[in-house]
Amino acid sequence: MKHGSSEEEKGHVVDRLTALGYGSNVSGVEQTVIGAIGVLDRDREGLLEQLGALPYVERVVPVLKRYKLASREFRAEPTVVKVGKAGQGVTIGGDSLVVMAGPCSVESREQLMETAQAVRDAGATMLRGGAYKPRTSPYEFQGYGEEGLEILAEARERFGLPVVTEVMDPHDVEMVCRYADMLQIGARNMQNYTLLREVGRARTPVLLKRGGMYPTIENWLLAAEYILAGGNTDVVLCERGLPPYGDTNLRRNVLDLTAIPIVKELSHLPVIADPSHGTGKSALVSPLARASITVGADGLMIEVHPQPERALSDGAQSLDIPAFERLMRALPALAAVEGRRMAGAGVMA
Length: 349
Ligand code: PEP
Ligand code: MN
Hints:
two-stranded antiparallel ribbon; 11 helices
Protein backbone atom coordinates (compact mmCIF):
# COMPACT_ATOMS: atom_id res chain seq x y z
CA MET A 1 0.00 0.00 0.00
CA LYS A 2 1.12 3.57 -0.60
CA HIS A 3 2.31 5.52 2.42
CA GLY A 4 -0.62 7.15 4.15
CA SER A 5 -3.28 4.85 2.72
CA SER A 6 -6.39 4.77 4.89
CA GLU A 7 -7.91 1.88 6.82
CA GLU A 8 -10.79 1.99 4.36
CA GLU A 9 -8.46 1.58 1.39
CA LYS A 10 -6.69 -1.34 3.07
CA GLY A 11 -10.13 -2.83 3.73
CA HIS A 12 -10.95 -2.55 0.04
CA VAL A 13 -7.96 -4.63 -0.91
CA VAL A 14 -8.73 -7.25 1.73
CA ASP A 15 -12.39 -7.37 0.66
CA ARG A 16 -11.44 -7.76 -2.96
CA LEU A 17 -9.12 -10.66 -2.11
CA THR A 18 -11.84 -12.28 -0.01
CA ALA A 19 -14.34 -11.91 -2.84
CA LEU A 20 -11.90 -13.65 -5.18
CA GLY A 21 -11.57 -16.51 -2.70
CA TYR A 22 -8.09 -15.71 -1.38
CA GLY A 23 -6.89 -15.30 2.15
CA SER A 24 -5.04 -12.16 3.19
CA ASN A 25 -2.41 -11.15 5.68
CA VAL A 26 -1.99 -7.51 6.65
CA SER A 27 1.36 -6.54 8.15
CA GLY A 28 3.89 -3.74 8.39
CA VAL A 29 4.23 -0.83 10.73
CA GLU A 30 5.29 2.18 8.69
CA GLN A 31 4.14 0.77 5.40
CA THR A 32 1.28 -1.67 5.11
CA VAL A 33 1.84 -4.87 3.20
CA ILE A 34 -1.11 -7.04 2.28
CA GLY A 35 -0.26 -10.61 1.40
CA ALA A 36 -2.66 -12.48 -0.89
CA ILE A 37 -2.72 -16.10 0.17
CA GLY A 38 -3.61 -19.06 -2.02
CA VAL A 39 -3.35 -17.45 -5.46
CA LEU A 40 -3.30 -20.07 -8.21
CA ASP A 41 -0.67 -19.79 -10.95
CA ARG A 42 -3.27 -19.27 -13.65
CA ASP A 43 -4.80 -16.32 -11.77
CA ARG A 44 -1.53 -14.62 -10.97
CA GLU A 45 -1.18 -12.31 -13.99
CA GLY A 46 -4.80 -11.13 -13.82
CA LEU A 47 -4.53 -10.38 -10.13
CA LEU A 48 -1.27 -8.45 -10.57
CA GLU A 49 -2.99 -6.25 -13.12
CA GLN A 50 -6.19 -5.79 -11.15
CA LEU A 51 -4.55 -4.84 -7.87
CA GLY A 52 -1.82 -2.79 -9.56
CA ALA A 53 -4.52 -0.56 -11.06
CA LEU A 54 -5.79 0.55 -7.63
CA PRO A 55 -4.61 4.09 -6.89
CA TYR A 56 -3.60 3.40 -3.28
CA VAL A 57 -1.55 0.30 -4.12
CA GLU A 58 2.15 1.08 -4.37
CA ARG A 59 3.16 -2.14 -6.13
CA VAL A 60 2.20 -5.77 -6.50
CA VAL A 61 4.95 -8.33 -6.10
CA PRO A 62 4.58 -12.02 -6.97
CA VAL A 63 6.38 -14.15 -4.37
CA LEU A 64 6.61 -17.82 -5.26
CA LYS A 65 8.51 -18.92 -2.15
CA ARG A 66 6.71 -20.28 0.92
CA TYR A 67 8.29 -17.50 2.93
CA LYS A 68 7.17 -14.17 1.53
CA LEU A 69 8.17 -11.17 3.64
CA ALA A 70 11.60 -12.71 4.26
CA SER A 71 12.30 -13.22 0.55
CA ARG A 72 14.46 -11.24 -1.85
CA GLU A 73 11.50 -11.09 -4.22
CA PHE A 74 9.59 -9.12 -1.63
CA ARG A 75 12.47 -6.79 -0.88
CA ALA A 76 15.51 -6.62 -3.13
CA GLU A 77 17.74 -4.34 -1.07
CA PRO A 78 19.40 -5.67 2.11
CA THR A 79 17.58 -4.86 5.33
CA VAL A 80 19.54 -2.86 7.88
CA VAL A 81 18.35 -3.47 11.43
CA LYS A 82 18.81 -0.75 14.03
CA VAL A 83 19.42 -2.00 17.55
CA GLY A 84 19.54 0.06 20.72
CA LYS A 85 18.71 3.57 21.71
CA ALA A 86 19.58 6.47 19.44
CA GLY A 87 23.06 7.67 20.33
CA GLN A 88 24.25 4.30 21.58
CA GLY A 89 22.64 2.10 18.96
CA VAL A 90 24.20 0.01 16.22
CA THR A 91 23.13 -1.07 12.76
CA ILE A 92 23.27 -4.65 11.55
CA GLY A 93 23.45 -5.36 7.82
CA GLY A 94 24.57 -3.23 4.91
CA ASP A 95 28.33 -2.73 4.84
CA SER A 96 28.95 -2.81 8.58
CA LEU A 97 30.22 -5.78 10.54
CA VAL A 98 28.95 -6.26 14.11
CA VAL A 99 30.47 -8.31 16.90
CA MET A 100 28.20 -9.41 19.75
CA ALA A 101 30.34 -10.70 22.58
CA GLY A 102 29.97 -11.74 26.19
CA PRO A 103 29.51 -14.75 28.39
CA CYS A 104 27.15 -17.61 27.67
CA SER A 105 25.43 -16.92 31.01
CA VAL A 106 25.30 -13.95 33.31
CA GLU A 107 26.93 -15.54 36.38
CA SER A 108 27.51 -12.56 38.63
CA ARG A 109 27.65 -8.79 38.48
CA GLU A 110 31.46 -8.89 38.68
CA GLN A 111 31.78 -11.48 35.93
CA LEU A 112 29.51 -9.54 33.57
CA MET A 113 31.04 -6.13 34.24
CA GLU A 114 34.56 -7.45 33.76
CA THR A 115 33.61 -9.15 30.50
CA ALA A 116 31.58 -6.18 29.23
CA GLN A 117 34.43 -3.78 29.80
CA ALA A 118 36.95 -6.10 28.15
CA VAL A 119 34.85 -6.78 25.06
CA ARG A 120 33.98 -3.11 24.68
CA ASP A 121 37.64 -2.12 24.94
CA ALA A 122 38.49 -4.77 22.34
CA GLY A 123 35.95 -3.23 19.94
CA ALA A 124 32.79 -5.35 20.33
CA THR A 125 29.56 -3.68 19.16
CA MET A 126 27.06 -5.44 21.39
CA LEU A 127 27.00 -7.32 24.66
CA ARG A 128 25.52 -10.81 24.90
CA GLY A 129 24.69 -12.78 28.03
CA GLY A 130 22.05 -15.36 28.93
CA ALA A 131 19.65 -14.91 31.84
CA TYR A 132 17.32 -17.72 30.72
CA LYS A 133 19.36 -20.73 29.68
CA PRO A 134 17.99 -23.63 27.62
CA ARG A 135 19.95 -26.45 29.30
CA THR A 136 19.79 -30.08 28.28
CA SER A 137 19.51 -31.22 31.90
CA PRO A 138 17.18 -29.65 34.46
CA TYR A 139 19.98 -30.02 37.04
CA GLU A 140 22.34 -27.72 35.11
CA PHE A 141 22.57 -23.98 35.76
CA GLN A 142 19.37 -22.41 34.39
CA GLY A 143 20.35 -18.74 34.51
CA TYR A 144 19.45 -15.97 36.95
CA GLY A 145 16.31 -14.80 35.18
CA GLU A 146 15.20 -11.22 35.77
CA GLU A 147 18.12 -10.59 38.13
CA GLY A 148 20.45 -11.42 35.25
CA LEU A 149 18.56 -9.01 33.00
CA GLU A 150 19.03 -6.23 35.54
CA ILE A 151 22.77 -6.82 35.51
CA LEU A 152 22.80 -6.77 31.70
CA ALA A 153 20.89 -3.47 31.63
CA GLU A 154 23.33 -1.99 34.12
CA ALA A 155 26.28 -3.05 31.94
CA ARG A 156 24.59 -1.48 28.92
CA GLU A 157 24.34 1.85 30.74
CA ARG A 158 27.88 1.62 32.01
CA PHE A 159 29.63 0.57 28.83
CA GLY A 160 27.27 1.80 26.11
CA LEU A 161 26.82 -1.58 24.45
CA PRO A 162 23.32 -2.63 23.35
CA VAL A 163 22.31 -5.96 24.90
CA VAL A 164 21.11 -9.17 23.24
CA THR A 165 19.69 -11.90 25.46
CA GLU A 166 17.61 -15.03 25.01
CA VAL A 167 13.90 -15.23 25.76
CA MET A 168 12.47 -18.74 26.08
CA ASP A 169 8.95 -18.25 27.37
CA PRO A 170 6.28 -16.31 25.44
CA HIS A 171 5.02 -14.94 28.78
CA ASP A 172 8.41 -13.32 29.42
CA VAL A 173 8.68 -11.42 26.12
CA GLU A 174 7.22 -8.16 27.39
CA MET A 175 9.39 -8.21 30.50
CA VAL A 176 12.60 -9.08 28.64
CA CYS A 177 11.88 -6.19 26.23
CA ARG A 178 12.07 -3.80 29.18
CA TYR A 179 15.74 -4.73 29.71
CA ALA A 180 17.09 -5.92 26.36
CA ASP A 181 17.80 -4.17 23.06
CA MET A 182 17.51 -7.39 21.09
CA LEU A 183 15.68 -10.66 21.80
CA GLN A 184 17.48 -13.89 21.02
CA ILE A 185 15.46 -16.88 19.91
CA GLY A 186 17.66 -19.85 20.70
CA ALA A 187 18.28 -22.75 18.35
CA ARG A 188 16.01 -25.04 20.36
CA ASN A 189 13.12 -22.63 19.89
CA MET A 190 13.40 -21.90 16.18
CA GLN A 191 10.22 -23.86 15.62
CA ASN A 192 8.43 -22.72 18.78
CA TYR A 193 5.67 -20.99 16.87
CA THR A 194 3.94 -19.55 19.94
CA LEU A 195 7.17 -17.84 20.93
CA LEU A 196 7.84 -16.66 17.36
CA ARG A 197 4.38 -15.10 17.17
CA GLU A 198 4.91 -13.38 20.51
CA VAL A 199 8.23 -11.78 19.49
CA GLY A 200 6.54 -10.87 16.20
CA ARG A 201 4.18 -8.69 18.23
CA ALA A 202 7.09 -7.01 20.01
CA ARG A 203 8.88 -3.98 18.59
CA THR A 204 12.31 -5.03 19.82
CA PRO A 205 14.67 -6.48 17.18
CA VAL A 206 15.06 -10.27 17.14
CA LEU A 207 18.10 -12.48 16.63
CA LEU A 208 16.79 -15.77 15.23
CA LYS A 209 19.15 -18.68 15.59
CA ARG A 210 18.93 -21.62 13.22
CA GLY A 211 17.86 -24.88 14.80
CA GLY A 212 14.67 -26.69 15.75
CA MET A 213 13.57 -30.18 14.83
CA TYR A 214 14.26 -29.66 11.11
CA PRO A 215 16.90 -26.94 10.82
CA THR A 216 16.66 -26.50 7.06
CA ILE A 217 17.30 -23.12 5.50
CA GLU A 218 13.69 -22.99 4.33
CA ASN A 219 12.36 -23.67 7.82
CA TRP A 220 14.68 -21.01 9.20
CA LEU A 221 13.27 -18.44 6.79
CA LEU A 222 9.73 -19.63 7.55
CA ALA A 223 10.47 -19.08 11.24
CA ALA A 224 11.59 -15.54 10.36
CA GLU A 225 8.35 -15.20 8.42
CA TYR A 226 6.33 -15.82 11.61
CA ILE A 227 8.07 -12.84 13.22
CA LEU A 228 7.81 -10.60 10.16
CA ALA A 229 4.15 -11.49 9.65
CA GLY A 230 3.47 -10.22 13.16
CA GLY A 231 4.74 -6.82 12.10
CA ASN A 232 8.22 -6.98 13.62
CA THR A 233 10.45 -6.19 10.65
CA ASP A 234 13.74 -6.17 12.59
CA VAL A 235 14.92 -9.74 12.26
CA VAL A 236 18.56 -10.83 12.09
CA LEU A 237 19.39 -14.47 11.32
CA CYS A 238 22.15 -16.36 13.13
CA GLU A 239 23.85 -19.52 11.86
CA ARG A 240 25.06 -21.47 14.91
CA GLY A 241 25.94 -24.89 13.61
CA LEU A 242 24.22 -28.23 13.12
CA PRO A 243 24.84 -31.51 14.94
CA PRO A 244 27.97 -33.22 13.57
CA TYR A 245 28.07 -36.59 11.81
CA GLY A 246 30.41 -37.89 14.47
CA ASP A 247 33.63 -36.80 16.14
CA THR A 248 31.60 -35.17 18.90
CA ASN A 249 34.73 -35.15 21.02
CA LEU A 250 36.40 -32.90 18.44
CA ARG A 251 33.52 -30.52 17.78
CA ARG A 252 30.08 -30.12 19.26
CA ASN A 253 28.49 -28.73 16.10
CA VAL A 254 29.36 -28.07 12.47
CA LEU A 255 29.03 -24.43 11.50
CA ASP A 256 27.22 -24.42 8.15
CA LEU A 257 29.22 -21.81 6.26
CA THR A 258 27.42 -22.56 3.00
CA ALA A 259 24.15 -21.43 4.57
CA ILE A 260 25.40 -17.85 4.80
CA PRO A 261 25.75 -17.01 1.09
CA ILE A 262 22.66 -19.12 0.34
CA VAL A 263 20.53 -17.20 2.80
CA LYS A 264 21.91 -13.88 1.60
CA GLU A 265 20.72 -14.72 -1.87
CA LEU A 266 17.29 -15.96 -0.76
CA SER A 267 16.58 -13.26 1.80
CA HIS A 268 17.17 -9.56 2.43
CA LEU A 269 17.61 -10.16 6.17
CA PRO A 270 21.05 -9.72 7.75
CA VAL A 271 22.77 -12.93 8.83
CA ILE A 272 25.49 -13.34 11.43
CA ALA A 273 27.51 -16.40 12.48
CA ASP A 274 28.06 -17.85 15.94
CA PRO A 275 31.27 -19.89 15.76
CA SER A 276 31.16 -20.48 19.53
CA HIS A 277 28.07 -22.70 19.49
CA GLY A 278 28.91 -23.50 15.87
CA THR A 279 31.97 -25.48 16.93
CA GLY A 280 31.78 -25.98 20.69
CA LYS A 281 35.58 -25.70 20.98
CA SER A 282 37.42 -22.51 21.78
CA ALA A 283 40.36 -23.40 19.51
CA LEU A 284 38.01 -23.48 16.51
CA VAL A 285 36.25 -20.19 17.23
CA SER A 286 38.75 -17.81 15.70
CA PRO A 287 39.31 -19.76 12.42
CA LEU A 288 35.55 -20.13 11.89
CA ALA A 289 34.92 -16.51 12.80
CA ARG A 290 37.32 -15.46 10.07
CA ALA A 291 35.78 -17.87 7.59
CA SER A 292 32.31 -16.51 8.38
CA ILE A 293 33.39 -13.00 7.46
CA THR A 294 34.87 -14.27 4.22
CA VAL A 295 31.62 -16.00 3.18
CA GLY A 296 29.65 -12.80 3.78
CA ALA A 297 28.33 -12.85 7.35
CA ASP A 298 27.12 -9.45 8.60
CA GLY A 299 28.65 -10.10 11.98
CA LEU A 300 29.62 -12.53 14.69
CA MET A 301 28.40 -13.71 18.05
CA ILE A 302 31.29 -14.80 20.27
CA GLU A 303 31.19 -16.23 23.79
CA VAL A 304 33.83 -14.67 26.04
CA HIS A 305 34.55 -15.48 29.67
CA PRO A 306 37.29 -14.11 31.96
CA GLN A 307 37.92 -17.66 33.22
CA PRO A 308 36.42 -20.14 30.76
CA GLU A 309 37.46 -23.13 32.88
CA ARG A 310 35.18 -21.83 35.66
CA ALA A 311 32.18 -20.94 33.47
CA LEU A 312 28.76 -22.22 34.56
CA SER A 313 27.88 -22.96 30.92
CA ASP A 314 29.73 -23.36 27.61
CA GLY A 315 33.22 -22.88 29.06
CA ALA A 316 34.78 -25.22 26.47
CA GLN A 317 33.79 -22.92 23.62
CA SER A 318 34.36 -19.58 25.36
CA LEU A 319 37.35 -17.42 24.46
CA ASP A 320 39.27 -15.89 27.31
CA ILE A 321 39.84 -12.17 27.11
CA PRO A 322 43.31 -12.26 25.46
CA ALA A 323 42.05 -14.69 22.79
CA PHE A 324 39.08 -12.42 22.07
CA GLU A 325 41.40 -9.43 21.79
CA ARG A 326 43.57 -11.30 19.28
CA LEU A 327 40.53 -12.15 17.19
CA MET A 328 39.33 -8.55 17.24
CA ARG A 329 42.71 -7.30 16.10
CA ALA A 330 42.53 -9.62 13.07
CA LEU A 331 39.02 -8.58 11.97
CA PRO A 332 39.41 -5.07 10.51
CA ALA A 333 41.75 -6.27 7.75
CA LEU A 334 39.39 -9.14 6.88
CA ALA A 335 36.43 -6.79 6.92
CA ALA A 336 38.23 -4.42 4.56
CA VAL A 337 38.84 -7.23 2.05
CA GLU A 338 35.08 -7.81 2.02
CA GLY A 339 34.37 -4.11 1.55
CA ARG A 340 33.02 -3.72 5.06
CA ARG A 341 33.79 -1.59 8.05
CA MET A 342 33.70 -2.67 11.68
CA ALA A 343 30.58 -1.27 13.32
CA GLY A 344 31.42 0.73 16.42
CA ALA A 345 29.05 0.90 19.36
CA GLY A 346 27.26 4.22 19.68
CA VAL A 347 28.03 5.37 16.16
CA MET A 348 24.48 5.22 14.88
CA ALA A 349 22.55 8.47 14.78
C1 PEP B 1 23.44 -19.27 23.62
O1 PEP B 1 23.54 -18.33 22.82
O2 PEP B 1 24.01 -19.32 24.71
C2 PEP B 1 22.66 -20.46 23.19
C3 PEP B 1 22.07 -21.26 24.06
O3 PEP B 1 22.66 -20.61 21.86
P1 PEP B 1 21.94 -21.73 20.93
O4 PEP B 1 20.48 -21.48 21.07
O5 PEP B 1 22.47 -21.41 19.57
O6 PEP B 1 22.37 -23.07 21.44
MN1 MN C 1 26.08 -20.64 25.21
